[in-house]
Amino acid sequence: MKQVNLEKFAGGALSQQVSRAINQVMRNMQDVNTPSKDKRKVTVDLTFEQDEQREDVQVIINVKTKLSSTIPSKTKFYVGKDLDTGEVEFQEYGNKDTMKGQMEMNQETGELEEVGSKNLRRFQKAQ
């Protein structure tokens, strides 16, 4: 039986697609945002379709990767209602510069100042 040169198969397309898929897997394995223990996979699918006379055969090449998904990220929000206006307020928890009601001492005057109000988001009431 005749040997098939996989490097030259489909004008090199098979080799090129497999190489690209392996590179994707390797990049995914080095991504610190993915679990290190997950298995990755490269699947090469060659589908052969022949005509009624059995003379011409079309080969469809499909190279797929199964990569690890990223590790989920989490955050928390403060949610409340402004008692004066009734508007819903929300703010992502973070450092002292982003939370409503946080106090900071002014280094020059020694006075306490509220910080974070400038980053507070408000929902407008529906009309």
Can you give the mean pLDDT?
85
Q: What's the number of helices?
A: 1
Tell me the radius of gyration.
30 Å
Sketch the major β-sheet.
3 strands, antiparallel
**Fraction of helical residues:** 10-25%
Shape: elongated
Percent strand equals 25-35%
Cα separation of the termini: 77 Å
What count of domains describes the coordinates?
2
Total strands: the figure is 7
Structural class: alpha+beta
Q: Name the strands of the widest sheet in spatial order.
A: 3-4-7
**What series of H and E elements makes up the topology?**
HEEEEEEE
Enumerate the spans where pLDDT stays under 50 for 5 or more consecutive residues.
Answer: none
